[in-house]
Automatic annotation (TrEMBL):
PROSITE patterns: HMA_2. Residues 108-130, 229-255 are annotated as: Disordered. Residues 130-195 form the HMA domain. Keywords: Cell outer membrane, Membrane, Receptor, Signal, TonB box, Transmembrane, Transmembrane beta strand, Transport. One of its GO terms (molecular function) is siderophore uptake transmembrane transporter activity. Residues 1-22 form the signal peptide. One of its GO terms (biological process) is siderophore transmembrane transport. It comes from the Bacteria. This is TonB-dependent receptor. It is a multi-pass membrane protein.
Length: 901
């Protein structure tokens, strides 16, 4: 390990000297016109070639910040103009400007030597500044501009100038020959909504894809879409790092810690800017289904597989890239969340109505977020952004005795402070036994969940921003046979029962500082403390666990020369204190993990490379080196290829992560292998991936296909062996090979207005060398199919509309654990049968404040009839509630109401 560490130290010293030397340079800032990342790269490259020591261009602020020592800024700005970009001292030639790619054709209203404030946002125009003969007109790109101005002149205007940023057209006309009404009507006839006339749907739908503007735009408000490409719109996205800062294009608010509120966009969008395969899921997607908690937030998403973990506790688990949930990093606000003792039930602790957005990364994620990610990362952002106070009430109930209420309040305190109150309560009161085996299909109980968030944002002036959060959860569940009475002692109880009581408390803070005059340079510090207590019993078996976790992450971000070369470096610390009791065994351990990391991002005109590594000094697992790399290449703006590779490691919590098998009479057997955690070594795996993203036009509308292949190879793994004996649950370290191949292709298209279609197919090949030989990992279907259809009607004058959503999941056969040594009546087939699950929902938005919905889950009513082995004798040798491969409940219907105050 000496070589990587020494290289890291040398690299850090080099970056530090670069930082120190940069402080002696003079710095100036100039207005420069540009549109997109290609413009940014071109401007910074021209400035560097002209002699600038550093050059940082802000697309949002339309400013170029220079650091020079000898060369004059005039010489630099002249070269920038020669590259095609107007600035406050020099103007590009028309020939050079016209030769730029379509997405780089900015609005040329900036005149040389124009005295503009360098801090004025280019889209800050409001209704109060609109001039006479200036009218609001919607549009997107250079093609829109030409169309609007031509229509104006054809209607009699002497001159017309459309401004994409202000979304206005300035007209010069003779009132005796024409009128503004006539001109605006002609503009609408050409396909562009304006403040007096609206284009017909037929004309609007016939516009090129790049010209399809947001028709929900409110005139007089800043344009939510400032930068455009010729054939495909730029996407807002979230940076996953604590120290990054960006400006929201739709709300003009800066934020730290990777928290950016996106403007209008698709409900689920694959970020075209990220080097990794990152999907952004917003509230619009979450409203397509019941989405009572995080485990139900992916029912309309093809990337994540959701299934019941057992037939007694009714909990669900996620799988990604063919591997269990424990291999995916699950974070909240970029902080570790569902891990350790929370692994089994943590998905139930994030209510769906609390979620503002989700970022899903397939494959290796950034090293700045830790070492545990193997198959990817799922990060959840909570509600915390609002311009005006907003209180929402959600009521939900299904037809089988489950009810919940959510109250959320997001409100600004002043121009710097804002706060969020989140309250959730749910209860399951009915005895649901659809398969008539005498066991509840899902547990009864209640949950109280409350959180408070406080945000401070003064990045514009002082450069500081901070986010504070506190969360408390109390969850009590009872499951088992219908006649079970929790009030009786376990040894006097004639029925089999399960009780799970969980208390959880967490507090966190994220603070960042952006260096003045250096928007590219920032420092962020995240801290979190978590207390988790679980007391539970499964029949006559007791399991209790207590976890104390402290996490800290410090990240510094800056550039080398210009924003084509970015780097992040920092240090982290993780403490996990575990105390577990199973039957009479008392197990305790403390994991202490300090770590350091660095990450470099190289951005070119068509490519992005992100390479990082970290070294963690684990007191029980030893020193671990974790490198990761992501590469993206844009063959065209519509054809993108990504490559990724990386390593991850984790320590297995074999009891907490295997609770789905506790509702059985399997005896736990651990075969130690010289490790320091339950006698086992840590899990280490390499993940490799390649993906192709292709966009094209279908029926004149945007369509996209994404195909990806990932392979995960385990260097070491803690295998959970269900085949060694049906009466045993055996854990041991891998000796041999264990791998998972995952292929997925997804097609998204819109055959006609307001109707979205998503089709997907997935293939998994997951195998491991068990003691008995190489076998397929159980409960993993090789073939899966997915269909999601979403249709909504046009909004009426009050903002009301209907939405119709349906999702079909087809799951192929799965290998089941070997039960051949059981008596014949308690044996399972070698493979399960395939099945399909259909979910649907209809919702009605009466206006912007009231929404009602009704839906159904598992409308095909397929359920696993033999979900519990030997259910008539739960205290016998063959009882097993963990052999679940399909739904255990028939069709279930629900209703809900959303009210915003």
């Amino acid at each position: 390990m000496k070589l990587p560490i020494s290289r890291f130290i040398l690299g850090a010293l080099f970056l530090f000297t670069q930082f120190i030397s940069a402080q002696t340079l003079s710095k100036t800032q100039f207005k420069v016109k540009g549109n997109c990342e290609m413009c940014q790269t071109r401007i910074e490259s021209a400035a560097k070639k002209a002699g600038a020591k550093t050059a940082v261009y802000s697309i949002d602020l339309q400013t170029l910040t220079l650091e020079t020592d000898k060369v004059s800024t005039d010489d630099i700005l002249k070269k920038v103009a020669e590259a095609g970009h107007d600035n406050e001292k020099f103007k590009a030639s028309d020939t050079t400007y016209e030769g730029l790619p379509g997405c780089c054709h900015y609005d040329r209203d900036l005149q040389p030597s124009q005295a503009e404030s360098h801090h004025e946002h280019p889209t800050s125009t409001t209704a109060s500044t609109k001039k006479e003969n200036e009218f609001y007109v919607r549009g997107n790109c250079a093609s829109c501009k030409a169309r609007i101005e031509k229509a104006s002149k054809d209607a009699g205007a002497n001159a017309a100038e459309w401004n994409a940023e202000k979304q206005t057209v300035t007209l010069n006309f003779d009132p005796s020959k024409t009128s503004s009404d006539k001109i605006l009507k002609a503009i609408a006839d050409a396909g562009h909504d304006n403040e007096k006339y609206k284009a017909s749907d037929a004309v609007y739908n016939g516009l090129p894809g790049c010209c399809l503007y947001d028709r929900e735009f409110t005139f007089g408000e800043p344009n939510p879409k400032v930068h455009y490409e010729e054939e495909t719109k730029h996407e807002d996205h979230k940076d996953n790092e604590a120290s990054s800062t960006k400006e929201d294009h739709s709300q003009h608010e800066k934020s730290i810690d990777g928290v950016v509120v996106t403007g209008s966009k698709a409900a689920t969008a694959l970020s075209k800017k990220e080097a990794g395969l990152v999907f952004n899921i917003d509230k619009k997607e979450l409203l397509k289904a019941a989405c009572c908690n995080l485990s139900e937030s992916f029912e309309t998403n093809a990337t994540v597989d959701v299934s019941f973990s057992n037939a007694v506790t009714g909990t669900k688990q996620l799988k990604m890239l063919g591997l269990d949930q424990k291999y995916t990093s699950l974070t909240k606000e970029q902080l570790p969340e569902i891990r350790g003792l929370a692994s089994a039930y943590g998905l139930n602790f994030i209510p769906g109505r609390w979620i503002e957005s989700i970022q899903l990364t397939k494959g290796g994620s950034t090293v700045t977020n830790g070492y545990e990610s193997i198959t990817g990362q799922i990060n959840t952002e909570l509600l915390k952004n609002a311009k005006t106070p907003e209180t929402s009430l959600n009521l939900f109930s299904d037809f089988n005795g489950r009810a919940e209420v959510n109250i959320t309040n997001v409100s600004p305190i002043n121009d710097k402070w804002s706060q969020t109150f989140l309250l959730h309560g749910n209860g399951t009161f009915g005895n649901t036994d659809m398969n008539h085996d005498g066991f509840l299909d899902r547990p009864k109980g209640t949950q109280i969940n409350a959180a408070y968030l406080l945000n401070y944002n003064d990045l514009e002036k002082s450069g500081f921003g901070s986010h504070f959060g506190i969360n408390f959860i109390r969850d009590e569940r009872t499951a088992g046979q219908v006649g079970f009475d929790k009030k009786l002692a376990q040894d006097k109880q004639p029925f089999y029962g399960v009780g799970i009581d969980i208390s959880r408390f967490q507090v966190w803070n994220k603070t960042g500082y952006v260096f003045k005059g250096k928007p590219y340079q920032s420092i962020g510090w995240m801290n979190q403390y978590v207390y988790h207590q679980q007391d539970s019993f499964f029949g006559l078996r007791n399991y209790a666990g207590q976890q104390h976790t402290y996490y800290s992450n410090l990240i510094f971000e800056s550039i080398i020369g210009n924003t084509n070369h970015k780097y992040k470096a920092g240090a982290s610390f993780l403490y996990d204190g575990y105390k577990e009791t199973y039957l009479i065994d008392d197990m305790r351990r403390n994991e202490i993990v300090p770590g350091i990391f660095a990450e470099y991002t190289l951005t070119g005109l068509k490519y992005t490379l992100v390479a990082g590594s970290r070294v963690d000094f684990h007191n029980l697992a030893g020193t671990q080196f974790t490198p990761r790399l992501n590469f993206k290449y844009d063959f065209t703006p519509q054809t993108i290829v990504r490559l990724s590779a990386g390593r991850g490691f984790r320590t297995a919590n074999v009891f907490a992560e295997s609770q789905q098998y506790f509702a059985s009479n399997r005896a736990i057997n651990i075969l130690p292998n010289g490790g320091n955690i339950y006698g086992l070594k840590p899990e280490i795996a390499w993940n490799y991936g390649v993906s192709l993203q292709q966009e094209f036009k279908l029926f004149g509308r945007k369509s996209s296909i994404v195909a990806d292949f990932f392979r995960t190879d385990f260097q070491d793994q803690v295998l959970v062996d269900l085949d060694k004996s049906p009466q045993q649950l055996t854990f041991y370290n891998l000796e041999g090979k264990s791998f998972a191949n995952s292929f997925q292709t997804q097609w998204d298209f819109t055959p006609f207005k307001n109707f979205d279609v998503r089709l997907a197919y997935k293939y998994y090949d997951v195998q491991a060398d068990y003691i008995g030989g190489r076998r397929e990992v159980p409960f993993m279907a090789k073939h899966r199919g997915f269909v999601n259809l979403a249709y909504s009607t046009n909004k009426n004058d009050k903002g009301g509309f209907w939405s119709f959503d349906t999702t079909l999941n087809w799951v192929g056969k799965q290998r089941l654990p070997d039960t051949s040594s059981n008596p014949a009546e308690f044996q399972l087939a070698t493979y399960s049968e395939s099945y399909a699950v259909l979910n649907a929902q209809i919702s009605k938005n009466f206006n912007k404040k009231i929404r009602a919905y009704v839906g159904g889950e598992n409308l095909t009513s397929y359920y696993q009839k033999n979900a519990i082995v030997d259910f008539k004798n739960p205290f016998g040798n063959y009882f097993d509630g963990g052999m679940v491969y399909a739904p255990i409940m028939k069709a279930n219907f629900y209703v809900g109401l959303d009210v915003t105050f």
